[in-house]
Amino acid sequence: MPFWIKKSRIVITCAKGTPPFLKQEIFSLGFPVLSAGKAEVETEGTLEDTLRLNLLVRTGQRVLFLLESFDVKSPDELYKRISRINWEDYIPEGSYFSVTSSVYNPSIKDSRFANVKCKDAIVDRIKEKRGQRPDTGPERNRIVVHLYWKGNIGQVFLDTSGEPLSKRGYRMISLKAPMQETLAAAVVLASAWVGGGNFINPMCGSGTLAIEAALIALGRAPGLLRSNYGFMHLKGFDESSWKVLRRKIRADSKDWLSGRIIATDIGQQAVEAAKKNAMTAGVDRFIEFGVCDFSQTPVPTNGGVVILNPEYGERMGEIENLKETYKRIGDFFKKKCQGYKGYIFTGNLDLAKKVGLRTDRRIIFFNGPIECRLLEYDLYEGSKTGK
Ligand SMILES: C[S@@+](CC[C@H](N)C(=O)[O-])C[C@H]1O[C@@H](n2cnc3c(N)ncnc32)[C@H](O)[C@@H]1O
Questions:
Q1: Cβ-based neighbour number of residue 79 at 10 Å
Q2: What pTM was estimated for this model as a whole?
Q3: Quick one: which of 119, 132, 158, 302 has the fewest CB in 10 Å?
Q4: In 223-328, where do the E strands start and end?
């Protein structure tokens, strides 16, 4: 299928705050970075390239391959433009597809309307060409078409990921306030950890940070854990070269770590879940788990990073209790983590002040709609006390 090797723009979406890390990843994979927005980075390549991107990118959410870009002023015009695309070349007989959209147009009150127009244009085109309608619906586990419409600009993409890439497939058990896998990867990449020293993760919850850290240190592609992507359902998908690519990427990973990864939590249930998730991700033998108060987490003397993602509390009562926890994190950093870089990921900066240590860096992230910070502390002997 010639369209598999035709170059086009590729937009990779990500959480707000993470484009700098995604840019770095795209660049390291040998792709150009054409532009970056608040929650996406643009590169270019072929549909074939999206296989590698889906497998290897850690901080991206969806890999969107641009099919057409056009001027559009009304829903009818949108329908016409979309019906001109050769959908019969992309969508095999007897398939199912869904449409997602991002619409920023004052004349469209409900983006579902633009979705339906887009879906109808595709269905009508295929029916006209084949005499048979494809199935459609909301599920994103097969072909996904993405419509972007802002002002007079319309863009139609194939969402080659299908389900978002944050669904790596290892988090079988999720507890209260888990961090999205792609965000956890960005947080680990933002830290000073390069895989050599120790990675200490008290308050590990369902283990996302520790698991992402292990995957990064081992050079394991996060996408290898998943068996279904949007691109697999497109016409001309070559299963045998996909298998070869997976095998090659798998062979590139390491099977040993020079530092230790230690993950603990006060909740027995959390640690059990984290262990199971790590097992599904195939990294359980690289992580030492334990049930304890964070202050009792073993911290080897040879340095590395220590990262905590404490709760940030929504109700007043919770916040009062958490003040003491944040203060104790400061004591733990000072007393037990000398020689480390310390990190706290939180959405509550008032609570963070209770840590009582001076931050060296503050990196903005968004956990869903909540603006958060990754606070970095340099924990050398006799750390500076807070402002
Ligand atoms: C926001 S969750 C962490 C979520 C985690 N990043 C994930 O992706 O699943 C906070 C965790 O801190 C744990 N926790 C709360 N107080 C603790 C304490 N004093 N010592 C250790 N862990 C504690 C909770 O059990 C909870 O699992």
A1: 18
A2: 0.94
A3: 132
A4: 261-265, 287-291, 304-308
